[in-house]
Amino acid sequence: MKYFAVGKIINTHGIQGEVKILVTTDFAMQRFQPNNTLYVKQNDQLQPLKIRTARRFKQFYLLSFFEYPDLTAVEKLKNCQLLVEETQQTALADGSFYYHQIIGLTVIDQQGKQIGKIKEILSPGANDVWVVERPGKNELLLPAIKQVIKKIDLDQQQIEVEMIDGLDEE
To answer: What's the whole-model pTM score?
Structure first.
């Protein structure tokens, strides 16, 4: 079974066993509902956690778990990733993809020439930026916009892009 990160526990909050979550999912309201199950990895072991309470707090979420009733118990979860099973993922609309589906794909230009592989995805603002690792060259930053990303083919494990002026400064 595959698991995917939806948040990171960055600190405890108060004495009631709440933890502060840095959200890494677009579906926070769905993921962080009371009685939902998340998983935490500790010492190479996955442990299920059932959410007792969930609430927004500034740009974070505050969660408490039935398995960890107080501050002392929950303290050992600091810096742990919160995960969901692959089966818990929401189906996306056509043309939308999860980050894990994009990372690792081969990037080609419209003539079929290989440029590199997607190494990571940045979210600096208006649109995502895909970081392409290129052998023997600097990384290429591709804005995830229609003018650049022409075709995503998960079956072929590749992305076709149009190299518009100013993208590659080498």
So the answer is: 0.64
